[in-house]
Amino acid sequence: MTLPKPVLYPPFNIVRLSHVELAVTDLAKSRAFYVDTLGLQVTDEDKDTIYLRALEERGHHCIVLRKSGQAEARDLGFKVYSEEDLDKAEHFFKGKGLPVEWVERPYQSRTFRTHDPHGIPLEFYSKMERLPPIHQKYALYKGVKPLRIDHFNCFSPNVDESVAFYNEIGFRVTEYTEDNETGKLWAAWTHRKGGVHDIAFTNGKGPRLHHVAFWVPTPLNIIDLLDLMATTGWVGNIERGPGRHGISNAFFLYVRDPDNHRIEIYCSDYQTVDPDLEPIRWDLKDPQRQTLWGAPAPRSWFEEGSTFANAKVREPELAAQPIIAP
Ligand SMILES: [Fe+2]
């Protein structure tokens, strides 16, 4: 597989990933997880919905928890630079034959929703209500001290197709995993904001949301979270880690929320703003790819994910197997 050439002047300009809505079955339990355990800040709530932001964030929300009869992932939100970019984005998606529906979203200005060619629901906006900074209100720092949403990772039934589509709208590949036998992509990490990724794709039954990640100040915050979860009834929700990724070089931990939505705690990847940054290639069979220290991920990590609302899930076209923990 030859990676597509980066599109440095895309048809519209995305700043970064912004937020996601997760449908949850028990709002009180979800609040105990996201607020009391992880330490996200409530910016608004009522009996059906909780809006959250992380400590560095000035926008109103990065996660919306919505009470529902069924747990699922809803729109992945992206912020564009300007209203003009939003109009250009509408034109782009319509040109691809993808639906564009303008929707009302509290705390966001004009917002449209669409989906990618595999069915991942997406929404785009340019302005969200701005809140006063709290990053130096240290009395608010609790749990894992989450600073900002960092990335989405999605299962894709065809990673080459996902990369081709997101590349066209300006996402640049920083690292990728190739299956040696077929030359096809097994996973790819793509960014807009200058880190290793805003959205990554992993080969698997999809489309499904694999995880949402939050950036934290130091690896020690991850150790503190593990101690907290292990002694407050959440030990069964610790899935993988802590460790250091080979890909991205970030320190990580994966935990599951009360509905099994997967959250990654993530720290210390690297800067990727150079337009001529060379993507790093990994072999699927390299044991240091997942974890630099060599420990493979458990089977659940490769098989379980959150379905997206109204997205038809299909088997992946590539059958290549990663290394799975015994
Ligand atoms: Fe991740």
Automatic annotation (TrEMBL):
It holds the Pfam family Glyoxalase. Coiled coil: none annotated. GO terms for molecular function: 3,4-dihydroxyphenylacetate 2,3-dioxygenase activity; lactoylglutathione lyase activity; metal ion binding. The keyword Zinc does not apply. It is an enzyme of class 1 (oxidoreductase). Transmembrane segments: none annotated. This is 3,4-dihydroxyphenylacetate 2,3-dioxygenase. Keywords: Dioxygenase, Metal-binding, Oxidoreductase. The gene is hpaD. It comes from the Bacteria. Signal peptide: none annotated. InterPro entries: DHPA_dOase_Mn/Fe, Glyas_Bleomycin-R_OHBP_Dase, Glyas_Fos-R_dOase_dom, Glyoxalase_1_CS, GlyoxalaseI/FosfomycinResist, VOC_core.
